[in-house]
Design goal:
Elements (H helix, E strand, L loop, with lengths): L2 H4 L2 E5 L13 H12 L2 E7 L16 E5 L2 E6 L9 H25 L3 E4 L6 H15 L9 E6 L5 H5 L8 H16 L2 E4 L5 H6 L7 E3 L6 H5 L6 H12 L3 E6 L8 H13 L4 E6 L5 H10 L5 E4 L7 H5 L4 E5 L13 H9 L3 E4 L6 H4 L3 E4 L4 H12 L3 H18 L2 H9 L4
Parallel strand pairs: 1-2, 1-5, 2-4, 5-6, 6-7, 7-8, 9-10, 9-12, 10-11, 12-13, 13-14
Antiparallel strand pairs: 3-4
Helix pairs in contact: 2-17, 3-4, 4-6, 10-15, 13-16
């Protein structure tokens, strides 16, 4: 990298950005940390409250700055909220409004070379476009007037609101999101999509040829080299299952309707009815967990176990105790855009075969031979896949898992993904 590129200033607008200590979202931190290591200066503007974080920063004023591993976080105060109702929408308005009115001062002070708008919702593009205009003015006459605006798409809004949330296309909130999405595709210099199959849709909404790039989530190698140990409760149960010669089918993550864990319980019932040797272990938390536990009990399932969630840094220790992992989702037209679930990358890095029960055109699971695909909400097919794995030797299972592990190291480390992203900075 030339000295000129090493001095580039990156400004990321990410409402929900977190860190390993605060919690999700992790991607902005992992990308930014690698860019700092590459020699870039990175600033992130985020809200001081996010429902995704385990811990939120306490600030005294808007744009208060915190340095986390060389990344400069600038916090914008927004109200707290629960769930996805009106209160959350108000925080979006607060975040966008405050950044909109401060855009001239932000651009003059930070003088970014690259602006990345990277929130779940697309309204941040209007702030990004305004920041780009003022940043160009602030740098006029310096010989470095070029400022690139990159829009990063995590979730497909408003498609998610309409197809999953059931909102009307005429709802004012949905209309606003559609206007923002169209503007982002038309006016950004480049668009980065975490999902692999979004390009045709984005072109229909104004994206020009050659501006689309796919950069997924990934894994952090050092977290797998020095993981946190498992809680005693987890260690005890998993050791006991292996001691009985059980095939441990593991799930880790949120217990929500969208994860289709009801289908996993139905599959477990079929496994027990045929006398299979698989045990199902669900690790995590969520609004549906109490109901799932109640249902498992009413179904008389003796080989389904629920454990509390573990920290992200303990996931490597957890997955070492699984024989394979389950990743599922409710059937939805939204999966026509593909998948980019962190638990898939974690499972690949762990060297575990993945049982992915999601109806989607293509996945990295099949691309890299890292497991098997079955349709969404298909307990018979889930059980059939488990039954086939029950017949495999440990070496045969390990071979399937090793294919995913190799692919994770070759293609999906944040070190490599951040380098690929940095290639778009110009």
């Amino acid at each position: 990298m030339t000295e000129k590129k090493r001095r580039k200033r990156i400004l990321m607008l990410e409402h929900y950005a977190g860190s390993p200590t605060m919690g999700m979202e992790f991607r902005p931190y992992y990308m930014a940390r690698e860019w700092v290591r590459m020699g870039y200066r990175v600033d992130i503007i985020a809200a001081d409250y996010s429902h995704l974080r385990m811990e939120n920063p306490v600030i005294r004023h808007d744009f208060q700055c915190t340095n986390i591993d060389g990344i400069r976080y600038h916090w914008v105060h927004t109200r707290t909220y629960d769930g996805n109702g009106a209160a959350r929408a108000i925080t979006m308005e607060q975040f966008i409004r405050k950044n909109w009115f401060a855009a001239k001062e932000i651009a003059g002070r930070l003088k970014p070379d690259v602006i990345i708008t990277s929130s779940t919702y697309p309204l941040d593009t209007f702030v990004g476009q305004r920041l780009r205009k003022y940043a160009r003015r602030a740098k006029k006459g310096t010989g470095h007037e070029e400022v690139r605006l990159i829009h990063e798409v995590h979730d497909m809004w408003p498609a998610t609101l309409i197809e999953v949330g059931g909102m009307s296309k005429r709802n004012p909130f949905t209309v606003a999101m559609q206007i923002g999405e169209n503007s982002a595709y038309k006016k950004s210099d480049l668009v980065v999509s975490l999902l692999p199959l979004t390009e045709p849709y984005m072109k229909e909404h104004g994206l020009a040829e050659g501006k689309w790039h796919h950069i997924p989530n990934g894994i952090v190698e050092e977290e797998w080299e020095n993981p946190e140990p498992l809680p005693e409760e987890h260690e005890k149960l998993l050791s006991e299952l292996h001691g009985r010669g059980r095939l441990v089918v593991g799930y880790f993550g949120g217990h929500a309707l969208s994860n289709s864990l009801d289908s996993l319980l139905d599959a477990a019932k079929k496994t027990e009815e045929r006398g299979g040797r698989a045990s199902y272990v669900l690790v995590g938390d969520g609004v549906e967990k109490p109901e799932l536990m109640k249902r498992a009990k009413s179904m008389g399932l003796s080989e389904v176990y629920f454990l509390p969630k573990v920290t992200k840094r303990a996931v490597p220790s957890l997955t070492k105790q699984f024989d394979c992992t389950y990743v599922g989702a409710k059937d939805s037209t939204l999966y026509r855009f593909g998948l980019c679930m962190n638990k898939i990358f974690d499972s690949m890095m762990a060297g575990l075969p993945i049982l992915c029960a999601i109806t989607t055109p293509d996945t990295i699971v099949t691309k890299h031979g890292a497991g098997v695909m079955v349709p969404s909400e298909a307990p018979e097919e889930i059980d059939a896949a488990v039954e086939a794995w029950e017949r495999l030797s440990p070496d045969e299972l390990r071979k399937m898992g090793e294919a995913g592990h190799r692919a994770a190291l070759e293609h999906y480390t944040y070190r490599k993904l951040a380098k690929e992203f940095a290639g778009l900075f110009g």
